[in-house]
Amino acid sequence: MRAIEPSQILCFLGLLAAGMVASMGLLALACVLWPAAGPGGDWSWVMPVIFVVAFIGCMVAVFRLWWRWCPLPLGVIEPGSAGEFTYHVYILFYLIVFYPVMRCQLLPVPLNRLMYLGLGACMGPNSYTGGLILDPPLVSIGRDTLLGMGSLLVPHIIEGRRLEHHRISIGDRVTVGANATVMAGACIGNDAVVAMHSVVLAGTVIPAGEVWGGVPARRLRSPWGVGNRGGDRGIA
C-alpha cells in the first residue's frame, strides 16, 4: 500500500470540515423548527441522532461533489500521478467516514441500498445487498438481484505498490451467495448464480444463466441444467 501524503490528508480534512459545518447548520435549523428538541427541551435526546444522520448525509453530498470534480481513474494508477492524489483523498472518505457505517451492520438492508445509491453505486429496482460493496461508484447491478449476507464486491486491486481499479458489472436477477467475493473487472450475466463462499477472480466473465462456485469460482452448471455436475443442492 502506498503512503498517504500530508497534502492529501489536508485536502480531505478541508472536505471533512465542509461536511461538519453543513451538518451543524442542519442541526441548528432542526432546533429552530423543533424547539422541543433543542437544548433543555423534552426531546433534546434526539439531537445526537439528528446530528449523526445529518453528518453522514452531508459527507455523502461532499463526496459526490468531490467525485464529480475529481473522478477516480480506471485502470492502473501510477505512483505520483494526479490519479494517485485523487485516490488517496477518495480512500480517506471511506476509511474515516463510510466504512464504519457500512461495516457496522446496524443498517437494515433497505437502508443499505440507499447508502450505496448515495455513494454512487448503480442498482436497479428491487436489488439489495446484505454484504459490503467497496468502491460503490465502480459497481453496476441490474434489477431483482440479491447479494447475500457477508458478500463482498472489490473493484480495486492492491498488491504491494500495484494499484488498479476496474468496474464490476452484475446483471438482472442474479444471486450472489452468502460470503461470496467478486473481484475487480468481473462481469456476471443475467440470471446467473454465484454459490456461497465462492471467489470470482478479477476479470472473470460469467455468462447468463450459469451457476458458478468454488475457490476460485468455476462453472458448476450451464443454463437450463445442461452439464449439471452436482445437482442443485447447496448452490446459494
Tell me what you see in this structure:
By secondary structure, the protein is of the alpha/beta class. It has 2 domains: 1-104, no CATH class; 110-236, 3 Solenoid (UDP N-Acetylglucosamine Acyltransferase, domain 1). Helices cover 35% and strands 20% of the residues. It has 4 helices and 18 strands. It has a 6-stranded mixed β-sheet with strand order 3-6-11-14-17-18. It has a 5-stranded parallel β-sheet with strand order 2-5-10-13-16, with helices on one face. α2 packs antiparallel against α3 (82-103). The chain is globular and about 65 Å long. The chain starts with 5 loop residues before the first helix and ends in a 15-residue tail after the last strand.
What would a concise description of this structure say?
The chain has 236 residues and is of the alpha/beta class.
